[in-house]
Specification:
Transmembrane segments: 80-102
Order of helices and strands: HEEEEEHEEEEEEEEHEEEEHEEEEH
GO molecular function, one term: serine-type endopeptidase activity
Domain Peptidase S1: 244-476
Structural class: alpha+beta
Largest sheet: 6 strands, antiparallel, barrel
Oligomer: single chain
Helix content: 10-25%
Keywords: Disulfide bond, Glycoprotein, Hydrolase, Membrane, Protease, Serine protease, Transmembrane, Transmembrane helix
Shape: globular
GO biological process, one term: proteolysis
Strand content: 15-25%
Length: 478
């Protein structure tokens, strides 16, 4: 991080950062064809057969009687037919099973009902009815604003409504948290918040904690909505007075959600803790290596040298967004699921995912952190560094002098247009966070940029708010 941040490993090219290179226009990347290697199986060469029976002139030759060999030949033919029949039968069964799998399972996304179409994860609970029967918007919940007000989607009015607090208890809270994608073990509490005015679109009421089915209601006797905390996120026990004066080295516990992702025992990317099992990072971190067994996650350490003496956490799976485009870095987000949960402490804590309705505007102050290079092309910083940046309006970031239309709705810009403060190689996947209502929220994951801290080339981050549905869907499915 220079005041910046971004280490480029010898075998790894961080495609998120290209100094001075023009980025391609948004388009669908083409796929090449694999050339099949020559077969190494020896080919059978048949021996020549004499098809002519030569008779020597003179006395006729006696025709020999049938020999056992001719019987074996007939039996051999029968065996060939039998084997062929078995092969055809096996292939037929395999074809039926393949057809069943393809028609009953979605290769990408989730199926509507039993026989409906498959929908991508980001289309579920997005407020738009895509399934014929509306399954994708049935029983959908979300947390709204910095107060975590619980809302449920009404298919009737096609609006999000607050959930009425009448008769609510923690059993309902745990069930809904699980429905959203969290684990019951991380449940914190439910509470109620008095609404200053009646909900204009009405309320939703939960019928059963087993099914978490909600129904529309025009009344709520308590005039209070449920607030729900599914994980104790966004807090830190860090005393800012211990900050190094005039420096950018982070203090211990300053960014407890920051992790270092190691591949082959080297720091490659950053990431953010969102639950004991889940880490958010950038999809482009895995363009060379995506096998979980090749990665470890280090949490709670400030110095890369410290990490060389620890094992780190093993990874169960890596989930890259299925729409990630390596040419444009669109949809640049990924999740890592750990084999064993992290133990939260003063130096290991989760950051909050940004609820819908969170106030994020241009010039909102944010912070970035990581072990990236302190100048373009430099080596990784051995110590965790931090910097303050501001969000930049997308229209400004997409202007001709900045990124000239390369910023999609899945991206967010932050930094300083005059340069001087930015993320850099090695910071990829790390957090862009902001503080609201006393809590820290994950606004973005470090994605790409041109150079490091260059004038009119601010850092570009994955827009975590836009990816919320996808994130929760992966957590639900796993």
């Amino acid at each position: 991080m220079r005041n910046t941040m971004r280490s480029e490993m010898p075998y790894y090219v961080n495609h998120g950062f290209h100094k001075g290179e023009a980025r391609p226009h948004l388009s669908t990347s083409s796929m090449g064809l694999y050339n099949l290697p020559p077969s190494t199986v020896p080919q059978y060469v048949p021996h020549p057969i004499n098809t002519h029976h030569t008779v020597t002139p003179g006395f006729p030759h006696a025709v020999p009687a049938s020999t056992p060999a001719s019987k074996e030949s007939k039996w051999g033919c029968c065996k060939c037919v039998l084997v062929s029949f078995i092969v055809v039968l096996v292939l037929g069964v395999a074809a039926v099973l393949a057809w069943y799998f393809v028609t009953s399972k979605c290769l990408v996304g989730t199926r509507c009902g039993e026989h409906g179409p498959c929908l991508s994860s980001y289309k579920w609970c997005d407020g738009t009815k895509d399934c014929p029967s509306g399954d994708d918007e049935s029983g959908c919940y979300r947390l709204d604003g910095a107060d975590f007000i619980l809302q449920s989607y009404s298919s009737d009015s096609q609006t999000w409504r607050p959930v009425c607090a009448d008769g609510w208890n923690d059993d309902y809270g745990k069930a809904v948290c699980e429905r959203i994608g969290y684990n019951r073990d991380t449940y914190v509490r439910s509470a109620s918040r008095l609404l200053h005015s009646s909900a204009p679109n009405g309320y939703m009421k939960i019928l059963s904690q087993e099914t978490t089915i909600s129904i529309s209601s025009n009344s709520c006797s308590s005039n209070a909505a449920v607030t729900l905390r599914c994980v104790d996120c966004g807090t830190r026990r860090y005393n800012p007075r211990t900050r190094i004066v005039g420096g950018d080295v982070a203090g211990r516990g300053a960014w407890p959600w920051q992790v270092s992702l190691h591949n082959r025992f080297q720091h490659l990317c950053g990431g953010s803790i969102i639950t004991p099992y889940w880490i958010i990072t950038a999809a482009h971190c895995f363009h060379k290596e995506s096998r979980p067994s090749e990665w470890t996650v280090h949490a709670g350490s400030l110095n890369l040298d410290e990490m060389s003496y620890s094992m780190g956490r093993s990874v169960k799976q890596v989930i890259r967004h299925n729409l990630f485009n390596s040419d444009t870095n669109d949809y640049d987000i990924a999740l890592m699921q750990l084999n064993n949960p992290l133990r939260f402490s003063d130096t290991v804590r989760p950051v909050c995912l940004p609820n819908s309705g969170l106030s994020l505007t241009a010039t909102t102050p944010c912070h970035i952190s990581g072990w990236g290079a302190t100048y373009y092309g430099g080596s990784a910083s051995r110590s965790l560094r931090e910097a303050e940046v501001s969000l930049i309006d997308s229209s400004v970031c997409n202007s001709r002098l900045v990124y000239n239309g390369q910023i999609t709705r899945n991206m967010i810009c932050a930094g300083q247009l005059q340069g001087g403060v930015d993320a850099c190689q090695g910071d990829s996947g790390g957090p862009l966070v902001t503080e609201q209502n006393g809590l820290w929220w994950l606004v973005g994951d470090t994605s790409w940029g041109e150079g490091c801290a260059v004038r009119n080339k601010p850092g570009v981050y994955g827009n975590v708010t836009y990816f919320l549905n996808w994130i929760y869907k992966q957590m639900q499915n796993n």
